[in-house]
Q: What sequence folds into this?
């Protein structure tokens, strides 16, 4: 357990000390969302209609932006090899790194989303559902992303390949994430959508570390 | 039986047995066979030097010994038990110091070493201080690694050997970039490890004084491809 926390703490410390990567994710999210009112026009009804979708799609893309670095830096300097040789199982190490990744991106996106919702004339009846859906959905993005990042490790143009691999897998999260806040805004229950997101999180927690660890072992051999 | 062999005249027959051995190992990288028919055995306190020209498979052999890669043929045994049966147990008994230093430029020397110690379940500041001290890095403890020289970085990655207790040390070119003082510190660390009954396996280009070490010339096992 100490080794697990040590790995999460190291990733957080590195990210906060180097700043760049993670600030860029938040900045990308904010900028991309702000582009929509400029592009679509200021008409409130149109913006309200697309707001949940825009928030989720830009959040997916912002999360994707940071995934390439998830294992790449450790791969480049030999840390990944040394990590694979430490006693903590590689599956748990993947989980520890995903936790750090989520704290730096998913949580930041969840905090930013209500603020950016203002720009999009988001219907605030759906606000709690939006936040709950993001809290459940963004960890899934980190976990699925870790599988993609591990599979594309060491590949040329890994970034493009990573998007092609991961984006289709993000579709269920997108659908139910958007549906949760739209249902709440229209007076329906958001609960079924949130439960499905929770189920996806449970499945990803069980399967993604295992898949990513196998891919990492393959890359190291 | 093997225990009654006259070698090493053991007081305790258990100690005399091979602790780490490999038999009939073969390795290939992609399409290219690297070596084949390679065997070795080590008793507690013994050191093995891997020698051979570039491309003869020194690093590949060390990675196989660490369990990072599986050998094409053959098997590795720790106290007579195949290591592929319990990779977690094998990982917890070894420290591998490779070509790459596995150090983060943004973290200080002490933070880097403490992280690797924590990953090996060593949560003591004393162990970290001992590691830094042994390789004369105590003054650099609070320096971010990006300000360290190549030799200092190498010393810091070797300091893991002191901070983390392990039965088996696997060292890939450990003397690269080291000055005489650091080489002396490394030789001292290896000697202490051997006194405690640990094993050391190192690939070596430069000179490193390791008394009574076995040598394995990898060139002898190279597979020549038909032209």
A:
């Amino acid at each position: 357990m100490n080794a697990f926390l040590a790995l999460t703490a190291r990733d957080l410390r590195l990210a906060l000390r180097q700043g760049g990567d993670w600030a860029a994710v938040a900045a990308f999210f904010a900028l991309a969302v702000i582009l929509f009112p400029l592009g679509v026009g200021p008409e409130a009804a149109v913006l309200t209609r697309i707001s949940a979708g825009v928030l989720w799609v830009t959040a997916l893309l912002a999360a994707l932006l940071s995934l390439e670095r998830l294992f790449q830096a450790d791969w480049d300097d030999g840390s990944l090899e040394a990590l694979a040789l430490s006693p903590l199982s590689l599956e748990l190490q993947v989980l520890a790194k995903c936790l750090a990744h989520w704290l730096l991106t998913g949580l930041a996106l969840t905090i930013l989303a209500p603020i950016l919702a203002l720009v999009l004339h988001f219907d605030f009846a759906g606000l709690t559902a939006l936040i709950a859906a993001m809290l459940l959905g963004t960890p899934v993005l980190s976990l699925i992303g870790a599988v993609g990042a591990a599979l594309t490790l060491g590949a040329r143009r890994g970034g493009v390949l990573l998007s092609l691999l991961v984006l289709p897998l993000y579709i269920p999260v997108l659908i139910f994430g958007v549906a949760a806040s739209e249902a709440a805004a229209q007076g329906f229950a958001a609960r079924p959508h949130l439960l499905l997101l929770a189920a996806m999180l449970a499945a990803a927690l069980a399967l993604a570390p295992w898949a990513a660890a196998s891919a990492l072992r393959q890359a190291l051999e | 039986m093997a225990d009654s062999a006259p070698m090493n005249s053991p007081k305790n027959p258990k100690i005399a047995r091979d602790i780490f051995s490999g038999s009939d190992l073969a390795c290939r990288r992609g399409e290219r066979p690297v070596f084949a028919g390679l065997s070795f055995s080590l008793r507690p306190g013994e050191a093995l030097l891997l020698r051979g020209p570039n491309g003869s498979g020194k690093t590949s052999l060390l990675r196989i010994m660490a369990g990072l890669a599986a050998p094409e043929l053959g098997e590795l045994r720790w106290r007579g038990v195949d290591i592929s049966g319990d990779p977690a147990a094998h990982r917890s008994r070894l420290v591998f110091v490779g070509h790459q230093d596995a150090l983060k430029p943004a973290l200080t020397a002490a933070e880097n070493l403490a992280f690797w110690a924590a990953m090996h379940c060593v949560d003591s500041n004393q162990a970290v201080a001992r590691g830094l001290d042994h390789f004369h890095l105590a003054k650099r403890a609070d320096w971010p690694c990006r300000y360290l020289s190549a030799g200092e970085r190498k010393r810091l990655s070797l300091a893991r050997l002191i901070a983390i207790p392990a039965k088996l040390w696997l060292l890939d070119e450990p003397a690269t970039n080291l000055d005489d003082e650091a080489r002396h510190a490394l030789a001292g660390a290896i000697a202490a490890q051997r006194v405690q009954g640990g094993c050391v396996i190192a690939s070596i280009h430069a000179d490193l004084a390791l008394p009574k070490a076995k040598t394995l010339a990898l060139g002898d096992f190279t597979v020549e491809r038909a032209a």
Notes: Residues 148 and 164 of chain A are 9 Å apart (CA to CA).
